[in-house]
Amino acid sequence: MVRRYARALKGNRARGKKPLKRGKNVSMLTALSLNEVLASSNIYGAVDGITFEAFIANQLVPKLWKNACVVLDNAKIHLGDNIRVLIEEAGAKLIYLYPYSPEFSPIENFWSKVKAILRKVKARTYKDLINAITDSMLKVTKNNIRNWFCHCCYCAS
User: Fold this and answer.
1) 137 located within any domain
2) Residue 35 contacts residue 156 (beta carbons within 8 Å)
3) Residues forming beta bridges with residue 95, ordered by sequence position
4) How far apart are CA 140 and CA 93, in angstroms?
């Protein structure tokens, strides 16, 4: 990941290094509560429905509490039948956002901050990238999370 914009003195060109070859994608799955990151997983390559179900079953459901609300968007991998069953068996409710409504998803703001930090780090190896992801997630404060929930019209009191 490289920065999207650069600055230079007037009349000069902004210069920077960008890798010529792209490696495999690293997909990041994360669950965010009002207080903290509940669960997170990094996966090499793309995420399919089965992988997402495994994330929900093994990492999110054990950390859910009674009457918790799990909010997902309408991505195809989020629509599996087992996902609803797993979440409701844990005593939580599953709510799907309306299509094309990222303004109601605090996780979008979370990823915006994490990715901005990752662009500054300029990790060029997988090991450096995974360490940078961990470090960037630790830089997200509880105050950031509360503000994102309020910004997305969720009561954070």
Assistant:
1) yes
2) no
3) 71
4) 26
Spatial separation of the C-alpha atoms in residues 25 and 133, rounded to whole Å: 13
Residue 131 lies in a domain: yes
Closest to 137 in 3D by CA, of 58, 38, 56: 38
**Residue 138 included in any domain:** yes
Structure tokens given for 23: 């490696």
pLDDT (tens digit, 0 to 9) for every residue of the chain, 157 residues total? Answer: 667 778 889 999 888 777 767 778 899 999 999 999 999 999 999 999 999 999 999 999 999 999 999 999 989 999 988 999 999 999 999 999 988 888 899 999 999 999 999 989 988 888 999 999 999 999 999 999 999 999 998 876 6
* Contact by Cβ (8 Å): 133, 120: no
Closest CA to 74 of 104, 98, 107, 58: 98
pTM: 0.83
Mapping DSSP to helix (H, G, I), strand (E, B) and coil, where does residue 52 land?
A: helix
Q: Are 35 and 145 in contact (CB under 8 A)?
A: yes
| Residue numbers of the domain that contains 97 | 26-151
